[in-house]
Amino acid sequence: MKMRLSQAFLIISVLILNSCSQESLDDTDIIEAKNAIEVENDLLDIVNGHRLSMGYSSMEFSAIAYEYANKHNDHMIATGSLSHDGFSSRASSISSEVNAEMVAENVAKDYASAYEAFEKWLASAEHKKTMEGNFTHTAVSVKKDNDGHLYFTQLFYR
User: Fold this and answer.
1) 3-state secondary structure at position 131
2) Is 93 helix (H, G, I), strand (E, B) or coil?
3) Sequential DSSP letters for 3-24
4) Of 138, 108, 149, 148, which Cα lies nearest the Cα of 41?
5) How far apart are CA 5 and CA 17, in angstroms?
6) What are the C-alpha distances in Å from 87 to residues 5, 9, 31, 114, 147?
7) pTM greater than the 0.85 cutoff
8) Dihedral sign, Cα of residue 93, residue 98, residue 101, residue 106
9) Are 95 and 157 spatial neighbours (Cβ–Cβ below 8 Å)?
């Protein structure tokens, strides 16, 4: 009987911990917004150009990271807020799909251009560290909400 009670307690504890620690993105109705392709390409070029000017290698485009960046922008647009909601899930999925060792993310909202988003990231120590980090692949998603506000998500991995 002691064994069964301790096993039941362990199972309940695991279920409670998992339910409290999982990030939930299912509460929001997600509508797929249109990509601002030109802004995406500009930001990717600007970030890679910056890396090259610092003596770092440029990063290759990743279709898998692009898919996750797009989904995250749609989530931010649906909630109307800038966030890293669900990042651990995105990072885990990317890691398992491409065998990545490390995944990072920069997000932004309400900047008028790729250059403006880049400049703000460059002025932030954490965002700058990510852009200049030891990453081999990246993808940039930029989407516009119904009010014309741009949302930016850039994923990085190696």
Assistant:
1) helix
2) helix
3) HHHHHHHHHHHHHHHHHHHSPP
4) 138
5) 18
6) 36, 30, 19, 22, 25
7) no
8) negative
9) yes
Q: Which helix (H) or strand (E) holds 138?
A: strand 137-144
Place of tokens 């990453």: 135
**Per-residue pLDDT tens for 65-113?**
999 999 999 999 999 999 999 999 999 999 999 999 999 999 999 999 9
What are 104's strand-pairing partners? 156
End-to-end CA distance of the chain: 49
Q: Which residue type, as a one-letter code, is found at position 115?
A: Y
Report residue 125's pLDDT band, with 50, 70 and 90 as the boundaries. very high
Report the distance separating Cα 42 and Cα 135, nearest Å.
Answer: 19
What does the alpha-carbon distance between residue 72 and residue 154 come to, in Å, rounded to a whole number?
Answer: 10
For residue 32, which phi and psi values (nearest 5 degrees)? -75, 115
Structure-token pair, residue 57: 């290698």
Calpha distance 40→114 (Å, rounded): 7
The more confident residue out of 15 and 87 is 87
Structure tokens at 61: 């485009």
pLDDT bin (cut points 50, 70, 90) of residue 31 is confident
